[in-house]
């Protein structure tokens, strides 16, 4: 196994060299959005400087270059996730992807008496679309509960999979607790009962090798900006048979084959679900991000982040009065915490003055924070480009801030 030179990898991220409030930046908010390597920034820049044209519309050279490059990214993403390219609907991110499932798959199918099973640890993007569907169809939402350590209660989940459950929405990795859910086992159980599964891969794809085919879900959503790519990029993977039966979500150009006022013939999937001009430059950047991550190797990324997580958890555990939320045995490098006697927002604000960027608040997961009975937490989330020295700087800053708060 070849070792990665992590100090050199870090040099690939121009932003990480900057200062904030006169201090070296310590960026611990990668679960919110990831930083971008120069290769991604340059790919976007190069597209606009040398290749900019719309996709699928023009026969001229620039148009076909843009189309080829854009479709090439679909292929790259497909290989990265071990799925077919024509099963990947490119879109603006996880939020769009899940709403597409809600409006095109769930809304026409569900009715009163049906149940949508959603885990307690979902991001609002995997809760609110189902509530909107429930309101319009009369279906009911049921919650799959978690345990104190932040793991899903799998026995309770199995029991909750009653015959009225038509859809199960579960995250692969929690953005608050870091919990890695056994989505393969969960989807197998669901499939045996004829339940359609939606997996939110937002926090998984950037941090580990994900084989979507092996998971055996029906839908898998992810977002590009957390995996070194530009904002406004992402995709929904869906089984072909499902895509074939789903009506379009948005109407417009690109998603049609023929339009007349008498009627319109839609394009085949995935284009049928891709109305309008996409974020072409963004996807070119996402393609560069996939190349970049594969250049490091996702197994290396995962191992590096596990090592950083162990360092961070150990350092926080060594402090008095720090409560960590989420102690799953299989956990991604996300640490939500509170310090006794300090408000999460005060901590984050004072840490910012020390150059440390952490997120405070509810992390788009109100129901999860309700479970723990807290209004907000601080969250330090890591990526492979963070360093042990940064973790030490963060912990020193936390101690200083705590003294300031008295
Ligand atoms: N699900 C999870 C688990 C997330 O962490 C996020 C981003 N915070 C989302 C969904 C939403 O992703 P986006 O805002 O890119 O649509």
TrEMBL record:
Keywords per UniProt: Pyridoxal phosphate, Transferase
Gene Ontology biological process: cysteine metabolic process
Top enzyme class: transferase
PROSITE patterns on file: AA_TRANSFER_CLASS_5 (PS00595)
Catalytic activity entry: (sulfur carrier)-H + L-cysteine = (sulfur carrier)-SH + L-alanine
Database matches in SUPFAM superfamilies: PLP-dependent transferases
EC code: 2.8.1.7
MF-aspect GO terms: cysteine desulfurase activity; pyridoxal phosphate binding
A Pfam match: Aminotran_5
Domain Aminotransferase class V: 26-394
Coiled coil spans: none
Cofactor or coenzyme needed: pyridoxal 5'-phosphate
Record carries keyword Transferase: yes
Entry keyword annotation includes Metal-binding: no
Family: Belongs to the class-V pyridoxal-phosphate-dependent aminotransferase family. Csd subfamily.
Function text: Catalyzes the removal of elemental sulfur and selenium atoms from L-cysteine, L-cystine, L-selenocysteine, and L-selenocystine to produce L-alanine.
The name this protein goes by in its record: Cysteine desulfurase
Natural source organism: Luteimonas viscosa
